[in-house]
Design goal:
Length: 303
């Protein structure tokens, strides 16, 4: 039994070493690619903090993704135009727990899905819009205009079936300087690839009434429960960690297919390691029980 336990322990150590080597090799092979858990967009991994200056010097594009800044305040002194062409600062616009969705109004895919999902989800959020929370859709395309914002608002409000005061969901546009300042304060990084074309993260922010970032919600679709929880946390002013780090550990960015792939090798290695540990635990436990039983038999405590 001792030999079997020793063999299992040795096998576990071999697996652990192999896993470490595999992870190191895998991380190295993807060091220039963003990581995340979403459709051809990215969230930055904890292990991949690369400085923009280094990337620019090497000729690589800026890293696309989100550097979470929980508890920090977004820039509130900058001004945008709402869908009615009225100038408003973010400090004026944010007076209660708020959901902020960075999008652009000519986006052909992801932004449309996020805006539509958010409009549908607020129908079932167990909070009162206007009293308990508000929403801001902020365009990161400097070419977007209040007219485009007004048209987008009219389209997405058709999906809202509950009483939702229109002044409590604003669609904002601004100049490039203002956009860059806001996105930088959010830790949000994108890349413009052409006129009206961007590679960008899919993320919704929940902020407190004083503009502090409380939660990042990733994905193309939003659930009423998640929105309600994020807004409740925003009202309390309690930052909450997202599940991004778990997702980014299981998915990786494939530059050729421009999509995220499941890290099957890494997850399989972890699974094998965990199963080996569990097996070793029960094997050792069984061996100790057999040893104890044998000693008791020798002492005459059992027939």
């Amino acid at each position: 039994m001792k030999k079997e336990a020793a063999c299992c322990l040795f096998a576990g150590l071999v697996l652990l070493i192999s896993f470490g080597v595999a992870v190191a090799a895998e991380d190295g092979s993807h060091s220039d690619h963003p990581m995340g858990g979403d459709l051809h967009f990215s969230h930055e991994s904890e292990n991949q903090h690369q400085h923009p200056s280094g990337q620019e010097a090497s000729g690589l594009p800026p890293k696309i993704g989100v550097e979470e800044r929980l508890g920090e305040r977004i820039r509130q002194d900058i001004r945008f135009m709402d869908e009615n062409g009225q100038s408003v600062s973010l400090q004026e616009a944010i007076s209660k727990p708020s959901l902020i969705l960075p999008v652009y109004f000519s986006c052909p895919q992801a932004c449309n899905m996020m805006l539509a999902s958010l409009a549908q989800a607020v129908n079932d959020v167990p909070l009162e819009p206007g009293r308990d929370y508000q929403v801001l859709a902020v365009s990161f395309d400097a070419e977007d205009t209040p007219e485009k914002a007004r048209e987008a608002k009219a389209n997405y409000f058709k999906l809202i079936t509950r009483d939702f005061p229109q002044e409590n969901w604003r669609f904002l546009t601004g100049g490039q300087k203002e956009i860059d300042a806001l996105l930088a304060s959010m830790g949000y990084r994108l890349q413009k690839t052409g006129p009206g074309m961007f590679i960008h993260p899919n993320v919704l922010l929940a902020v407190s009434p004083d503009g502090r970032i409380i939660r990042y919600l990733y994905g193309l679709r939003f659930l009423p429960f998640d929105l309600g929880m994020a807004l409740t946390e925003a009202a309390a002013g309690t930052p909450h960690m997202s599940v991004r780090r778990i997702l980014s550990y299981c998915f990786d960015y494939d530059a050729e297919s421009k999509s995220y792939v499941f890290k099957s090798f890494r997850v399989a290695a972890i699974s094998i390691l965990l199963l080996s540990g569990i097996f070793l635990f029960f094997l050792l436990r069984k061996g100790n029980r057999s040893k104890t039983h044998s000693e008791e038999v020798k002492k005459g405590n059992h027939p």
